[in-house]
Amino acid sequence: MNQDAEFDAAYATWDGDDVDGPQKMLDWLLEEIDGPEGKKVPRHAMFTLAEKEQQRDKFFALVAKRPKILQTQWIANGKQIWKYAIDHAREDVEKLRGEKKGTRWKPSFVDDRAVVDVAFNVETNKTEFLHFDGTAVTRKESHEHSGVTYAPPMSESAGYVQTRSETFAILLPTDAADYGDSKSLAIDVKTFLRNYVTFPDEVSEHLAVTYVFMTYILEQFDAVPYLRAIGDWGGGKSRLVLVVGSICHRPIVISGGTTPAPIFRLIDQWRGTFVMDEGDYDDHSEVGRLLKKIRLQGYKRGFAIARMDGEGGDRDVKTFDPFGPQISSNRKSADPAEDSRCIDIHMPSMPSTKSRAQLPPEFSTQALKLRNQLERWRLDHLRAVELDGDEQIPGVIPRVREVGLSLLATVRAITGEIGSEWEHIILKQLKEVSERAEAARKSSWEGRVAQAIVTRWRTFRKNNGGAEKAYKLDVKDIRRLAIEDVEGKEIPALALKMTQNLVNKILRDTFKLPVIKSNSRYLVEVTKEKFAMIESGYHLGDEDYGQIDEEPKSGAQRFKREPVPRDDKPKREPMKPVKPPLDPTRALRPFKPRSAGNE
Prior knowledge:
41% helix
């Protein structure tokens, strides 16, 4: 009997009522037999590729007939034979079971007919869906749409209240409770925050309340800012992060010491608000590099992070979506690019505070009540929120405008009007964020080089009667201006780090200006179009240039300093010769004649 006929005969027995049929099929295919040249090989290696594909389909058919609780392990075991992706194999098995497109685990689902959101059922101690059809809220274990079954994710890390004996990483609502009206709910949220956090000013309170509401209508935005409590220790940063995060939409509460794997899975699985205390990470550690990627990419939709998932031979590439609101506490700003994504609340150190030293037991219950009310507000307002992507915010850079429009849309959804006092507070804060981002960009190495380029280009234009044309600038002049302060004096610390090679690299890589050699000088050619791009990109106005000097002469006089008047020079005292002290032990040393062995 050949191998193919032997397989068909064995399959008839596996396809019976025996629940272990799929495992017996795997054992049979993995059994070692005599192969070519007398070597032992697994039986499946003796079949052709087409025969193995047919066996894989028959294996899936066996798995589909067995209890679902056993399918995951069999699918994983079969990968060593057929080398398939686990997720694709699971979908094929689900199709054979009659589940047309399989089951997908999602925390929420929004379409034209309904808003579906995950909640925690206290009675069954598991997650379920709150289904809102526009009129009433009902509870469901799953949601069907276009032949796809959506089920809520489940995890031991998910709960609804923090207790003295139990702490959860994900906090869910338990219901969608009545809240009155939007303005009344906003007042309740502000009162709750004031009871447990000492804010530095009223503007910070408005920012915190706005951010809480924004997390509940995330589906309407393509870009959102981060909320960051920043300041030295003892300012109440950790308290602010914990209290504000406790009433956000699906808060995922972690600390800076968490390892990378759970961070990816929690964010991707629950799609909630990422709340992290002590966010000052080390860029050289794996966790630090991961958090930096999440911070830089998570503010905007469409950027997935690819990671290897699984262990051993059962590894596959999986993409994780880092998009979502984030709340963190930091002692200092980490990166100018990250700063432009953050709305900061500066928490100064306080000698004393009226806030509670410790959160009381009823804190978690109060937070749950607000999460339930905010959940109903989400169901009522989610599909009605409108954001005008073409709206301009005067005096704000594009990045801050991009994320700031989400806050403005949130304020308008709460107040029901455009141009409210609340909105003006948010606009003022956005302008301050924009100004800090511009200042940080100008003070960076690239910013200093940009200012030097613009200053030299304007000098050449002035000396050439205002002609708008391409000018060749000496890279040494660019570095000289880049390392000087506003008074034209060299900054020693900056001169040490900002070498000529670094300046040349910035010219080539950042500004795409190739360095060319001409008569023993190294130059870059800056056209009027490139000048305009650098000038507008770094927001360099006339006040950033300072006094325009005449074009320096060539050769050795290029960096020649002006002589100091002789009368202004400090007078030096003539140096007196100093004789070295005599060694008193020199005369006591015995004379040792040179011997042949010492030569």
